[in-house]
Specification:
327 residues; alpha/beta; D-Maltodextrin-Binding Protein, domain 2; 2 domains; 10-stranded mixed beta sheet; globular
Length: 327
């Protein structure tokens, strides 16, 4: 089914690039109409939450009309494909992140684009650690409890993730290797279904982006055991890192940023970058992003582009070592 979907995507991509081989709208008057922010994942996940926050705040602060539009499927690569084949005018942009930009291309072999060539990095928005959590009713009180149980009964402990081959799944895989344990991965179609099953106790652990899990952590229904970043999250200062839990050097996080089709005029890219960075500097936006468990981080378009290229190369090896595949 995924192969058919990707074949259709490739055809649509070829048709789209032909149809949009036109001169971009002059950037001087940008924006002269609403901007569509493509969200490549379903409603309720970390990418969706941050996308809608950015769209709402940009509409308020810059007086632009920015509309979030969910285009989910194939690990977030369907939405990226739609952005790639859009006209390079700045009116169709996308909220990308590590899963669909630097991991997806190494999983979906027939993708008709290269993120470093067919997209323009516009504005980095935030980064977030992955959280390893469990239901408030779980017997696990710490990561040490999980490791002990997993060593006693290899493969008996299950963990849910938003999907096979996502950065979150791979964070779980890297943790297994670091701890020397065998867990059973249960992939879901998005963050919310995994979260619901974790709350219900249908999986022992949830491995999730913080924005996706933060609401249930705050409500007390989900118990965070550790975060995967090098330092503690400012949103969960009492939750230890995986490194602090006995696995020195462990550091996995994901990032979110806005991209546009290749060929988008530089002054349009700079206009969006300037407004996003201005927004990220406000106390209101910082608080809103922190409330979701993420960390705001402004960059120039060039800096974001360099990050994209570096991670694209780095994660090829991680994906190959994990054995994750999408058939």
């Amino acid at each position: 089914m995924i192969r058919k979907l990707l074949s259709f995507t490739a055809i649509a991509f070829a048709m789209g690039t032909t149809a949009h081989a036109q001169a971009p709208v002059p950037a001087a008057a940008y924006p002269a109409k609403p901007i569509r922010l493509i969200v490549p994942f379903p409603p309720g996940g970390g990418t969706d939450i941050l996308s809608r926050l950015v769209a709402t705040k940009l509409t308020e602060s810059a007086k632009w009309t920015v509309v979030a539009d969910n285009k989910a499927g194939a690990g977030g690569t369907i939405g990226i494909t739609e952005a790639v084949k859009a006209a390079p005018t700045g009116y169709d942009i996308v909220m990308g992140q590590k899963d669909n930009l630097v991991i997806g291309p190494w999983l979906y072999k027939n993708l008709p684009w290269d993120p470093t060539k067919d997209l323009t990095a516009v504005a980095h928005v935030a980064y977030t650690p992955v959280v390893i959590a469990t239901s408030a009713n779980s017997k696990f009180k710490s990561l040490a409890d999980v490791v002990a149980a997993a060593k006693a009964a290899p493969g008996s402990i299950t963990y849910g993730s938003p999907g096979n081959g996502t950065s979150i799944h791979l964070a779980g895989d890297l943790f297994e290797k670091a701890a020397g344990v065998k867990l059973s991965h249960i992939p879901y179609k998005g963050s919310n279904p995994a979260l619901m099953d974790a709350l219900a106790g249908n999986v022992d652990l949830l491995v999730s982006s913080l924005p996706s899990a933060m609401g249930q952590i705050k409500s007390g229904k989900l118990r965070p055991l550790a975060v995967t970043s090098a330092k503690r999250s400012s949103s969960l200062p009492d939750v230890p890192t995986v490194a602090e839990s006995g696995f020195k050097g462990f550091d996995v996080s994901t990032w979110y940023g806005i991209l546009a089709p290749a060929g988008t005029p530089a002054n349009v890219v700079n206009a969006i970058n300037a407004e996003v960075n201005k927004l990220l500097a406000t106390a209101d936006m910082k608080a809103a992003i922190h409330a979701q468990g993420a960390e705001p981080e402004a960059m120039s378009a060039a800096q974001f582009g360099a990050l994209l290229k570096a991670d694209y190369t780095k994660w090829k090896g991680i994906v190959e070592a994990s054995g994750a595949k999408i058939e």
